[in-house]
């Protein structure tokens, strides 16, 4: 059964607007799509596989209160330049505009850096960094450079590094920096661009399925100052705020939605075992040759 959709923002806030949400059929992306639709925005949801996306789209269409609001789906691997070009073109053709782009699609697998194959590293960087860049560039070149627009990039809590996910941490930090550069380059075109960094405690059924259980989420609660998991709705609210005119003077910014997790701990429970492999450097005492520490 389709669940309830609501928003803290006023109904009709995005009436007549159009958006692309990549990875918009599951988890955080789905919540963003549902809230945008609720607020009157036409949404094109893009994902790599159409079959799962169609089922999610049917559910989201059944929640629509206003029959003028449209939800369309597109198959798009954001790593493929021709598919990204086609996604932007199809959206502009169908909706007549592209006001908002939400780069939510991404993914990674956990491993230590010494174990990464080049193929695995490249796949994560191509999806999370290059794919996001391609979507930004095509949105800019095909529509926003002439008409303005707003972009939100979904990144992650990688601000103190991301042990166990170093490929994704590097790629997301790259998107964080790309956001800053583009906010300056594209301001004269009337484009605002910001990032939202959800903590790793944002709980969704999709994320729990990906990791095989909810244990990995619950284990983090003691390490989050808010002492609870976060919701996909809490991320979506930040995205809708940044897309809205309430954020008209905000660009190049990164908003963390993590209950202060990133100021307190990393996104993975990562213990460093006791060891003595990093000996101190001191001026040795000439008499006994011993270190002071
Ligand atoms: N979600 C995860 N990887 C993706 C990709 N390459 N394209 C679109 N959506 C994705």
TrEMBL record:
Its EC number is 1.3.1.38. It catalyses: (2E)-octenoyl-CoA + NADPH + H(+) = octanoyl-CoA + NADP(+); (2E)-tetradecenoyl-CoA + NADPH + H(+) = tetradecanoyl-CoA + NADP(+); (2E)-decenoyl-CoA + NADPH + H(+) = decanoyl-CoA + NADP(+); (2E)-hexenoyl-CoA + NADPH + H(+) = hexanoyl-CoA + NADP(+). InterPro entries: NAD(P)-bd_dom_sf, Peroxisomal_t2-enoyl-CoA_red, SDR_fam. Pathway: Lipid metabolism. Keywords: Coiled coil, Fatty acid biosynthesis, Fatty acid metabolism, Lipid biosynthesis, Lipid metabolism, NADP, Oxidoreductase, Peroxisome, Phosphoprotein. One of its GO terms (molecular function) is trans-2-enoyl-CoA reductase (NADPH) activity. GO terms for cellular component: peroxisome. GO terms for biological process: fatty acid biosynthetic process; phytol metabolic process. Pfam families: adh_short_C2 (PF13561). Gene3D superfamilies: NAD(P)-binding Rossmann-like Domain. Its main location: other. Residues 43-77 form a coiled coil. It is found in: Peroxisome. Interacts with PEX5, probably required to target it into peroxisomes. Participates in chain elongation of fatty acids. Catalyzes the reduction of trans-2-enoyl-CoAs of varying chain lengths from 6:1 to 16:1, having maximum activity with 10:1 CoA. Has no 2,4-dienoyl-CoA reductase activity. This is Peroxisomal trans-2-enoyl-CoA reductase. It comes from Capitella teleta. The lineage of its organism: Eukaryota, Metazoa, Spiralia, Lophotrochozoa, Annelida.
């Amino acid at each position: 059964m389709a669940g309830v959709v609501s928003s803290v923002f006023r109904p009709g806030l995005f009436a007549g607007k159009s958006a692309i949400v990549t990875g918009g059929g599951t988890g955080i992306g789905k919540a963003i799509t549902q809230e945008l639709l609720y607020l009157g925005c036409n949404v094109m949801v893009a994902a790599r596989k159409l079959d799962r996306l169609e089922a999610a789209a049917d559910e989201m269409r059944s929640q629509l209160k206003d029959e003028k609001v449209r939800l369309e789906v597109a198959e798009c691997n954001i790593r493929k330049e021709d598919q990204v070009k086609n996604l932007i073109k199809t959206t502009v053709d169908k909706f007549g505009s592209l006001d908002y782009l939400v780069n939510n699609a991404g993914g990674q697998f956990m491993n230590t850096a010494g174990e990464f194959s080049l193929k695995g590293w490249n796949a994560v960087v191509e999806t999370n960094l290059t794919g996001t860049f391609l979507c930004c560039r095509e949105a800019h070149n095909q529509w926003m450079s002439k008409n303005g627009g707003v972009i939100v990039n979904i990144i992650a809590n990688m601000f103190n590094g991301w042990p166990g996910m170093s490929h994704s941490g590097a790629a997301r930090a790259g998107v964080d920096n790309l956001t800053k550069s583009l906010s300056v380059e594209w301001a004269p075109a009337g484009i605002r661009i910001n990032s939202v960094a959800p903590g790793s405690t944002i709980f969704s059924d999709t994320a729990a399925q990906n990791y095989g259980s909810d244990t990995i989420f619950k284990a983090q609660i003691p390490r989050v100052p808010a002492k609870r998991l976060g919701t996909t709705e809490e991320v979506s609210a930040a995205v809708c705020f940044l897309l809205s005119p309430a954020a008209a003077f905000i660009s190049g910014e990164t908003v963390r939605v993590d209950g202060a997790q990133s100021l307190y701990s990393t996104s993975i429970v990562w213990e460093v075992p006791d060891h003595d492999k990093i000996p101190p450097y001191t001026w040795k005492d000439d008499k006994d040759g011993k270190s002071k520490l």
